[in-house]
Structure formats: C-alpha cells, structure tokens
From TrEMBL:
Protein name: Exostosin-like protein
Domain Exostosin GT47 span(s) in chain numbering: 2-286
Gene Ontology annotations for the cellular component aspect, listed alphabetically: Golgi membrane
GO BP of this protein: glucuronoxylan biosynthetic process
Topology relative to the membrane: Single-pass type II membrane protein
Transferase found in the keyword field: yes
Record localization: Golgi apparatus membrane
Length: 344
C-alpha cells in the first residue's frame, strides 16, 4: 500500500520524481541489503509519496504525503522495534519533490507545515538543497539528483553522439509565463523565466520554446548551453538531462546546493549566473564560448560525471545510488567518530 500498489501507474517509475522508486529498486537488488535487521546500519522506508497524479494537469499530488508517511511510521514503530530503538535516526526516507523534507510542492505551505515531527531525527534523501538556512532542509539529509531515465539518455546518444554537431547555441524549453503572477499570487521562478523570454525570444542565438515536446531530449543533445533556471524550487531535472547529454548547464538558481557536490566537479562542468543577471546572459555565454568552452566540455563529457547522476535498476559502481550509499556511509563514520569522542 505504500509502494507496490502505486506502480500500477507506469508513470510512477519514470517521471522526474521517480528517484524514490529507483533507489528502492536498486537497494532491494543490492548486496548491501541484509535480511537480518540486527546487522543493518540503516533502514530504508519505501514510501512513494509522488505517485498520485492529478487527472487535470498530470502532475504529482503530494498533499497526502504527511498522512501516508505518518501511517507508515506508525506501522513500523508498532510492528518493529528498530524505529523506537533510535527514534528513527537510522531510518532513511526519499523526498524527491520540490521542498523535500517538508513534503509539499509550494514553499509557503511547506514552510508553514515544516518537517513532520516524527521525521526530525531521520535521514532524508532529497532533491531540494540550498546553501542558506531553510526550514525544509533542517534535518539530516543528502541532496540527490532528480530522476532521468538512463535508457532514454542512451537511446538519444545512440542516434546523436555526445560529441556530435551542436547547432543550437542556447536552449530552453519549459514553462515561461508571460504574466508571471499566477493565481496563487506568487511569481513563478521569481520571474526569472519570464525575463528570459522577454529579453531573448527574438534573439537568434536562443532557442526558447514554451510548449511541451516529448522529444525535447533530442534538442538538448544538439545544444551548446542549456538554461537551468529555478521553477518553484531551485532544482530542476534539466540539470541532469543537460549533463547526461553533454550540454553545458547554465544554472540560474541563487544559493542552490547541487547533488553530490563532493564528487561531481560542478564548477568545472557548468556555468552559474545570478538571478539578477539574466539580462546579461547573451554576453556572459558569448564570453564563455570565446574563452574556456572547450575546457568545460571536456570536463562535462567525462563519463564518470554523467554516471554519477543517473539511477539504474541495480547499484552500479559510481552511479547515483552508489553515491547515496557513499554519503550514508560517511554519515555513519561521522556518527561513530562522535560516539568515540564522547566515550573518551
């Protein structure tokens, strides 16, 4: 009722929030899994909160997330002694949607609700990460990449190799409101996407499209630079799609904390532009193209970089789930060091 039943909808395991499914599957098949709970360092709680889709717009509805999570924790705390042993501090959840551990898609409501009290001691694998204090990441967490289907990536690359010709200089396809203040009274993307549209919609260097297109990955592999502006939250699946298909990501999301920052050389494979400077994008990217673009592309085309951001059915050395396990092991080592220091 918390996972398998949701998989009846095929989108559950393929949309941008599907890391919750992918990590569960990979761990279930992994040799790090034990069936003896007394030997376990961590307990993975496989609750799919992003698998309920709206019939109106097709987007995940996660307003039920807290209720479902509370039900799951109530179940495991009654039927298994391990949650109560540590008050859940060695239990791991996935929050693959906009505001992570607050389990809501809208920031104001996420902040108002805060992190559920019963999860305060746990570890959350979340796509939401920022470098400034934010109540929705005020919990032990690991920033993970959003889900991008590796099979789709390989299919595109089989037809258009990563080193192939790139006839699009700057690419973006996605939601860009002409009148940014929507029905919620908020400004989507802090108006960043609207400013890009107004400034560059007639600029021949920029390939900007607002309508959806299922084959847009074939456009990314043709592009030199791929814009990755914030949406409601700072993170975006475009970041992983761009890296996987060899397009230099242009990150426009102030204060974002990127996935696996200790191992992915983000400063060497991407360009960061401040939200206030979107009006200077053309000049900034022209300067990069004239100076160090080839160096950035060489770093970007390192297969290890792409591999680190993709989830697979089985844990593979250096892939996204592998780095999740590394991050957890580092937390375990840190915890053990603190315990030893306290004992001494």
């Amino acid at each position: 009722m918390y996972n398998t039943d949701w998989l009846k909808n095929a989108r559950c395991s393929s949309h941008l929030f599907a890391s919750e499914v992918a990590i569960h599957k990979a761990l279930s098949n992994s040799n790090v899994r034990t069936f003896d709970p007394s030997l376990a360092n961590f307990f993975f709680v496989p609750v799919y909160v992003s698998c309920n889709f709206s019939t109106i717009n097709g987007f995940p509805i996660i307003t039920h997330a807290r209720e479902v999570l509370s039900s799951a924790v109530d179940l495991i705390s009654k039927e298994h002694p391990f949650w109560n042993r540590t008050n859940g501090s060695d239990h791991v959840f996935v929050a693959s949607h906009d505001y992570g551990a607050c389990f809501h898609a809208m920031e104001d409501r996420a902040v108002a609700g805060g992190i559920p009290k019963f999860m305060k001691n746990s570890i959350v694998l979340q796509t939401f990460g920022v470098k400034y204090w934010h109540p929705c990441q005020d919990v032990e967490n690991v920033v993970i990449p959003p889900y991008v289907c590796p099979d789709k990536v390989e299919k595109i690359l089989s037809n258009s190799p990563i080193h192939g010709p790139r006839d699009i200089f700057v690419f973006f396809r996605g939601k860009m409101e002409v009148h940014p203040k929507n029905v919620t009274g908020q400004f989507y993307s802090k108006s960043v996407r609207t400013k890009i549209l107004r400034k560059y919609k007639r600029d021949r260097r920029f390939y900007i499209k607002r309508n959806r297109f299922s084959g847009y990955l074939s456009e990314i592999v043709r592009s030199v630079f791929c814009l990755c502006p914030l949406g409601w939250a700072p993170w975006s699946p475009r970041l992983v799609e761009s890296v996987a298909l060899g397009c230099v990501p242009v990150i426009i999301a102030d204060g974002i904390r990127l996935p696996f920052e200790s191992v992915v050389p983000w400063s060497n494979i991407s360009i960061t532009v401040a939200e206030r400077d979107v009006g200077k994008l053309g000049r900034i990217l022209d300067d990069v193209a004239a100076t160090n673009l080839s160096s950035i592309q060489r770093n970007l085309w390192d297969l290890k970089v792409k591999w680190a951001l993709l989830f697979h059915d089985d844990v593979e050395y250096g892939d996204a789930t592998w780095h999740v396990l590394v991050s957890l092991s580092e937390k375990l080592n840190t915890s053990n060091q603190k315990s030893r220091s306290f004992s001494e």
